[in-house]
Amino acid sequence: MSESQSVVELTGSPEDVRTVLQEAKPIQRAKLPNGAPVWLVTKHAEVREVLSDPRLLVKDKVDWFDQGLLSPHVRNAMNTSMLRVDPPDHTRMRKLVNKVFVPRRIEAMRPRIQQLAAELLDRLDGDGGRADLVADYAGLLPVQVICELLGIPAQDQTNYREWADAFTAGIGAPVFPVREVTEFVEHLRELVERRRAEPDDALLSALIAARDQTGEISEDELISTAYLFIVAGYETATNLIDSGLHLLLSDPARADRVRADPRELGPAIEEFLRFESPATSAAPRIASCPMKLFGAEVAEGEMIMVSLRAANHDPEVFDAPNEFRMDRESNPHLAFGHGIHFCIGAPLARIESEIAIGQFLNRFPKARLSVAPEDAPWRAGILTWGLSSLQVELHG
Fold first, then answer.
1. In a 3-state reduction of DSSP, which class is residue 56?
2. Full-prediction pTM beyond 0.70?
3. 306 membership: H or E segment, kind and range
């Protein structure tokens, strides 16, 4: 990277980062909070191109996010999922996962998700009329769903949530959560051994059986796949639910519109995904050779990050991109990525948000935010974007 170019600092408040991304050039130098240099790509067409370019690899040769602090034993077990490998390894792993993570398994979860949401809403209703929808609802339902889908015991769910939060907050941060990630990986290793000895009908046991029968993935790849499902399945859905509730409750007319016609919720969810982009960036790409990328000279081994959030606010693609429009007709957002690494859990996240938001609105028709919409606190990470709390008055 040429030293004559200015460097975008991806640090500061969420508002500062939002401004930086929206004002960024199609490609420019940036620096992660831990000091790692990257090329940052922000426009819709260019982001799609990066995510489809076979010269740009996801498997890295450097420990950019943990600064080499994790032991190889742990790092290989949390960083070799299909999200972090390229073809032909990606093709091999995705094929195996597709055998067990099938649409009918996801759709079969719908009644259970409805039941879990109703139980959480019952608890909210008995807590005195005030609630933090992040801590007490949006942050609980997805971890319950993904843990049940995988077959993780209920008593472990709090630990998994805390470990996942620590990991996503630590990606690219000055201090990486080595202890939490190590505990997370070691617990998953123990769980895999338990499920291998005593299988159930959940997804993790199905993955173990497929791995043991075919040998198509290694033990580390199996652990890493479970790790990916937990972190991505929990974080993305939590951020989608809390940001969606925030956008609806910020303007009670929006919430009333969905209550009056539940068919409005589907398009609204797509606009939640575009407007607040629960995943702010895709996994970084590494240049496999020297290349010219959108006018920039990128050296072999340099890292390229795309901003899904900025791409979803590209005025060349979206009319009035900084306006939230529930009935936006054209909405080709990139919230779940693009290309071969498109999020496999997108259908589950949509189902969870549809159920969680719809049931909340119906249960609490007079719910209102306890603070001004602009005062709700956001947490911006390198890869994720969501609320840290959402205080509401449940009965108006």
1. strand
2. yes
3. strand 303-306
